[in-house]
């Protein structure tokens, strides 16, 4: 049995057969994905799983990562925050530098794929070179750009318009554009180390390793240490809960090579946590998928208190583990969770604390939400659906 067939028990044999049929139509087409980091964050997470699976289906898909300096990633992080609507800006010289780094990368990366599939703003300006090639260019925007700082979108728009089409996670996150648009939501891989089933013993071993007591309620947020993930707000919510019920808090996250802010955020988180022995701040190295899986599975409540979010993979990861997820009603999260049906959506720290407490005290309701959440993910947010929609988007570029 080839690996792709292992997904059949989860999504059905027909889904896999259909994937092979669509893949056949892409024969001879080379798809080159480009992004800005090989590890850390949702885009790298998805690409690392999807490329080998597409290859197994017979699709010639590869993945390249642009190179940048600290200054470049400072600029792109500011741009990222501004696209999310945060009031920050960069100078003209910095925008020029952004373009310069893109131009340097254009010299070193093969831009001659039949489809150049460029992810997010960091490598967006590679498209300047498209006239040298006879191929199709597709821009994948993982960010909710519906309410950006004007300067950021005005800067990017001329580059976006050079593409044949753009992919957004949902219509609500998009912008008006004179090019074709596809709406494709991200996904998780149910068979990855991050999401596969684990035994109770495996889960317990990870809790033991970090000194977390599995017999007490545990609230967990897995996220890069990023202001937009609001880890300090998570600690505040936990402190409210703690006044009423016993619990522990796990904040687990590493850094991404294209994210320069994490150390500052981490320092603030440590200060806020103080010496509370029930707060576990786990700075995880890349490839901690098994540990993250176990932490999510062994938690009583999964939290995602983002201030802005394109689409929170961690929310879907928690739901797939049939855990009750409490998450902010922002961006794509509102599409990932149906409030009080497949999870809980909140707007404030107090609301977040209230629901965490409810779920700790009412395991039956927590299980109900978790079970529904898992089925919702099965039907909507698994990698097989995602691959199908990407392949159909690639094909449509040639029709
Ligand atoms: N993640 C991880 N290690 C960490 C922090 C996050 O592997 O230390 C993973 C997490 O499990 C999820 C992805 O990175 O798969 C984050 O994706 P999400 O969409 O939640 O947020 P992003 O980081 O892309 O903003």
From TrEMBL:
One of its GO terms (molecular function) is glycosyltransferase activity. GO terms for biological process: glucose metabolic process. Residues 33-175 form the Trehalose synthase N-terminal domain. The keyword Signal does not apply. Keywords: Carbohydrate metabolism, Glucose metabolism, Glycosyltransferase, Transferase. It is an enzyme of class 2 (transferase). Its EC number is 2.4.1.-. Pfam families: Glycos_transf_1, TreT_GT1. Residues 206-375 form the Glycosyl transferase family domain. Homodimer. Belongs to the glycosyltransferase group 1 family. Glycosyltransferase 4 subfamily. This is Trehalose phosphorylase, putative. It comes from Coprothermobacter proteolyticus (strain ATCC 35245 / DSM 5265 / OCM 4 / BT).
């Amino acid at each position: 049995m080839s690996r792709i067939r292992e997904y059949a028990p989860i999504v059905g044999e027909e889904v896999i057969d259909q994937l092979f049929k669509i893949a056949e139509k892409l024969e001879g087409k080379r798809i080159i994905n480009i992004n800005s980091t090989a590890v850390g964050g949702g885009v790298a997470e998805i690409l690392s799983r999807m490329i080998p699976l597409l290859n197994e289906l017979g699709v010639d898909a590869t993945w390249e990562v642009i190179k940048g300096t600290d200054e470049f990633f400072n600029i792109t992080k500011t741009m990222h925050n501004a696209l999310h609507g945060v009031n920050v800006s960069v100078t003209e010289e910095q925008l020029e530098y952004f373009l310069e780094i893109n131009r340097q990368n254009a010299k070193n990366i093969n831009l001659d794929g039949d489809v150049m599939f460029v992810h997010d703003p960091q490598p967006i300006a590679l498209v300047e070179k498209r006239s040298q090639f006879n191929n199709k260019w597709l821009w994948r925007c993982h960010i909710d750009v519906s309410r950006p700082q004007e300067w950021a979108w005005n800067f990017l728009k001329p580059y976006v318009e050079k593409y044949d089409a753009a992919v957004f996670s949902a219509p609500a996150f998009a912008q008006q554009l004179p090019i074709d648009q596809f709406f494709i939501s991200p996904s998780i891989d149910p068979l990855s180390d991050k999401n596969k089933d684990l035994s109770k013993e495996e889960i317990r071993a990870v809790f033991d390793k970090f000194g977390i007591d599995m017999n007490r309620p545990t609230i967990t947020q897995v996220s890069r240490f990023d202001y937009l993930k609001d880890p300090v707000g998570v600690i505040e919510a936990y402190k409210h809960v703690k006044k009423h019920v016993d619990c522990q808090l796990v904040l687990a996250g590493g850094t991404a090579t294209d994210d320069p802010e994490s150390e500052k955020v981490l320092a603030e988180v440590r200060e806020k946590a103080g010496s509370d022995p029930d707060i576990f701040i786990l700075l995880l190295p890349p490839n901690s998928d098994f540990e993250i899986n176990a932490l999510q599975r062994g938690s009583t409540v999964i939290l995602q208190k983002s201030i802005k979010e394109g689409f929170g993979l961690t929310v879907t990861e928690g739901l797939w583990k049939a855990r009750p997820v409490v998450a902010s009603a922002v961006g794509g999260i509102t599409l990932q969770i149906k409030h009080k049906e497949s999870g809980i959506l909140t707007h404030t720290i107090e609301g977040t604390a209230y629901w965490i407490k409810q779920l700790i005290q009412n395991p039956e309701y927590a299980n109900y939400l978790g079970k529904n959440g898992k089925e919702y993910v099965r039907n909507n947010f698994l990698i097989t659906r995602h691959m199908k929609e990407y392949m159909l988007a690639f094909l449509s570029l040639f029709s």
